[in-house]
């Protein structure tokens, strides 16, 4: 790895065994050395002076990507690669599999991931089976698949998958989409997974102003395979996006803690509200799904909100709601299910808005 100038090390002084995740989020991936900037620059370059290891961005990376990769790699405990988007990480993992490979994916999980895999199944590229997220026995019975693509908690139903039991049984690759939990909530590589992926578009970026994906592999050869796939597919992140994602990661611990505190409070109040038929909340994290009796009621409630915005996506500083079944890929989700991404606003203002919309 070559830095922006001779001798630059990204967070070289950070011993990943000694510091807590909160500290790593701040300190890992910083350039170090006399005269180095504390924040990695936005290196907007496709090409580099010949004669060094780094010749061309798409194949050799940039210092900006590498700073972000060093930071998330330290947090998840593996070798990281940055991609153009969350969904590009799945494209890369799929690209490493042979034609006809067997892949399992949760019946309820990010619609874009299921859609990509369904397409690959339809064209004969892969053989894809969907499994109920919490049916651990069914996942264990699928242990011979080439890839178990897990996501926990799931988007949008907030089911929790038993990663440890499934990874212990698996004979092929186990990948975990850790977008909802973040490395501060769950470290899948420690639970036996081979690959962790993130849509950094969501909580890691944290401000709804970028698209970026990350893979973190336990094994260096798996990481190299994913990096080679990034080069082949051209699924590279932008310089500004990588810089923004790292800037977002620096404050992830405090955003996550505060947004989780608010989510816990609101989940408890929603549970007590007579208009709500079901609340899905896994006990921690910033995402809640609550159910109203039908689509019409849910749309009416969403339409009555003043502070909480109706928009897709999640994990930013602003609270967002979406009735998820409107999407073709999520038509099997309960019609009145509202996915609620809890932001950084004052919890009492959020509750006032919700309570008045619920009537
Ligand atoms: C949004 C999302 C993705 C896709 O990420 P993009 O950055 O939009 O490509 C993947 N998994 C989960 C759980 C998501 O919420």
UniProtKB/TrEMBL annotation:
GO MF entries: cystathionine gamma-lyase activity; cystathionine gamma-synthase activity; pyridoxal phosphate binding
Coiled-coil ranges per UniProt: none
Family per record: Belongs to the trans-sulfuration enzymes family.
Source species: Amycolatopsis japonica
InterPro entries: Cys/Met-Metab_PyrdxlP-dep_enz (IPR000277), PyrdxlP-dep_Trfase (IPR015424), PyrdxlP-dep_Trfase_major (IPR015421), PyrdxlP-dep_Trfase_small (IPR015422)
Keywords per UniProt: Antibiotic biosynthesis, Pyridoxal phosphate
Biological process terms in GO annotation: antibiotic biosynthetic process; cysteine biosynthetic process via cystathionine; transsulfuration
Record Gene3D superfamilies: Aspartate Aminotransferase, domain 1, Type I PLP-dependent aspartate aminotransferase-like (Major domain)
Cofactor: pyridoxal 5'-phosphate
Domain of life: Bacteria
Chain positions with N6-(pyridoxal phosphate)lysine modification: 202
Protein name per Swiss-Prot or TrEMBL: Cystathionine gamma-synthase
């Amino acid at each position: 790895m070559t830095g922006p100038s001779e001798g630059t090390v990204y967070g070289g002084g950070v011993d990943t065994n000694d510091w807590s995740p909160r500290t790593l989020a701040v300190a890992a991936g910083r350039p170090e050395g006399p005269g180095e900037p504390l924040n990695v620059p936005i290196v907007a370059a496709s090409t580099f002076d010949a004669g060094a290891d780094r010749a061309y961005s798409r194949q050799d990376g940039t210092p900006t990507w590498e700073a972000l990769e060093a930071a998330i790699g330290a947090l998840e405990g593996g070798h990281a690669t940055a991609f153009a988007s969350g969904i590009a990480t799945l494209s890369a993992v799929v690209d490493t599999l042979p034609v006809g490979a067997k892949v399992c994916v949760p019946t309820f999980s990010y619609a874009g991931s299921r859609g990509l895999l369904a397409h690959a199944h339809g064209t004969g590229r892969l053989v894809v089976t969907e499994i109920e997220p919490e049916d651990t026995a069914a996942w264990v019975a699928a242990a011979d698949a080439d890839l178990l693509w897990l996501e926990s908690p799931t988007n949008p139903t907030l089911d929790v998958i038993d990663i440890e039991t499934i990874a212990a049984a698996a004979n092929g690759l186990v990948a975990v989409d850790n977008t909802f939990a973040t490395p501060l909530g769950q470290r899948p590589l420690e639970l036996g997974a081979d690959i962790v992926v993130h849509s950094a578009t969501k909580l890691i970026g944290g401000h709804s102003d970028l698209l970026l994906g990350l893979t973190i592999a336990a094994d260096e050869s798996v990481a190299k395979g994913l990096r080679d796939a990034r080069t082949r597919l051209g699924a590279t992140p932008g310089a500004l996006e990588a810089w923004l994602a790292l800037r977002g990661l620096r404050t992830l611990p405090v955003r996550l803690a505060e947004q989780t505190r608010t989510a816990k409070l609101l989940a408890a109040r929603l549970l007590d509200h007579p208009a709500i038929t079901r609340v899905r909340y896994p006990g921690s994290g910033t995402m809640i799904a609550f159910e109203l009796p039908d689509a019409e009621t849910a749309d009416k409630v969403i339409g009555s909100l003043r502070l909480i915005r109706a928009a897709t996506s999640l994990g930013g500083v602003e609270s967002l709601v979406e009735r998820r079944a409107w999407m073709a890929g999520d038509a099997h989700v309960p019609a009145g299910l509202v996915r609620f991404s809890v932001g950084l606003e004052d919890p009492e203002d959020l509750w006032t808005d919700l309570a008045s919309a619920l009537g």
